[in-house]
Amino acid sequence: MLFLIVVLIAYVGMLALMVGANVLTVSWQDIGKVLRDPDIQRSIKLTVVTCTATAILSVLVAVPLAYLLSRYHFRGRAFIDTILDIPILLPPLIVGLSLLILFNRVSPSTCCGMMAGGLWLAAFVGFLWRVKGSGRAMIPGSLLFLGGLFAVAAVLTRGAGSLEEVTSGFGLPMTFHPLGIVLAQFPVAAAFAVRTMRTTFDQISPRYEEVAMTLGCHRGQAFTRVVLPLAGKGMVAAGTMAWARSLGEFGPVLIFAGATRGRTEVLATSVFLEINIGNLPGAAAISLLMIVLAVVILMIVRFFVGRGGAI
Amino acid sequence: MRLEIKDLTVRVGGFVLSDFSLAVAEGECVALMGPSGCGKTTLMEAVCGLRSGGVLSGRILLGGVDLTDLPPGARMIGLVPQDVALFPTLTVREQLEFGPKLHRWDRDEMRDRVEGLASDLGLSQLLDRLPKGLSGGEARRVALGRALALRPRLLCLDEALSGLDEARHDEVLQVIRKMIDREGVTALHVTHSRREANAIADRVVVMGPREA
Predict the structure, then answer these.
(1) Which domains does chain B possess?
(2) Are B8 and B20 in contact (CB under 8 A)?
(3) pLDDT-based confidence at A130, cuts 50/70/90?
(4) pTM of the model
(5) What residues of chain B lie within 8 A of the CB of A135, using their CB?
(6) Which residue of A38, A138, A153, B156 has the smallest Cβ count within 10 Å?
């Protein structure tokens, strides 16, 4: 028991000391100065806007993916499950670097070609599994068809320049642009949102959908009328989790969106920029602001998830 | 309506229910008994259309209509599952209206049906309550009402009385029997209890143990 208490005190104490060190470095004047700084005000606004956009996008992607993984048992599910966790395990800088290369060195034609190849490979593997007759494969025909569409798109987009040039052509520049911040935050935030939604759907008995279907619902109606209302708190928790992850995202944002003061500066990059110019109290004041935001987010998550699970 | 199950083989995971046949006359209530794992629930789920991918062979006919390939919602079968599965976010009234609303019933017809069922099942005072505040017996009665609201052609009760204390058990048992008679619906009732089977059913069918 004593050992457990020592470990608890050591860990909680370390966290408290880290926050305490920040507090000791900052005066009320520093906080006031930071909050009055127009660049930091813009940074706060951009942080709130990009984190909110990323959180919404993450939940929109997480709900169907998590539902698929929770309700459908198909060959390759464990593989897909693992792939969805990769952004969590990947070093953040690599996420940013990969996005930078993808948007600036790879053409849409190559992207579509790679997608076609991947889908056809999945279709082939699915076909082999189906031939073996040992369970349901992931609809090889549909994968083949989708792969075909990507192949056609690959041919049609030949010579279109880089992905960045194409998105810029549509008025959606990504690299070193505020929109890029959302894209840089998204992979990791979405991975956390998928995990949270998966837990939520796992906790909702499939029996509700089955009963709803006997009463006349098709699967889509059973999902929207029965499952989705039950998953509401889980969706809030997933969104909040994604928001909190996005708040702390620094490496990918720095590499892909840059750290241009007043343009692509979010709070995490503000801390970096303040340290770069030797303004430690300023950096600590912004850190405190982020800590407060993180604690508020944590309390929201605990309120929704901690009391009675996802439902 | 008359239910006919002909040589039905269903696979669920590693379990296979082989060549099962059963005929239930119109308005008859049949209790299905058997040891755990013999396939009672699998059979009931197959009849309801919830294991359609697992049906390997055989036919399910209700009133002469082949249901085997129909989706669950087109079968007009009411299900009261073992865990009741009342939708947690809906009030008792909304539970009873769930099926009729999906089938776009006329508003007055739906209100009459819901209030009639609520009265018959002793739920009139509970219509605005959420499932969270209901007792086990009340929840069973709501689940029964929800299953009967659409005037199904077959009522499936999957160990719907398990987990109730003796007093509530007998009370709900009588309500179920009364409602089956009143609605004139054909019923399949899965149970482990011989006493319950004898009390509710016109006929008891005992399923054999799972084949090795």
Answers:
(1) 3-206 (3.40.50.300)
(2) yes
(3) low
(4) 0.84
(5) none
(6) A38
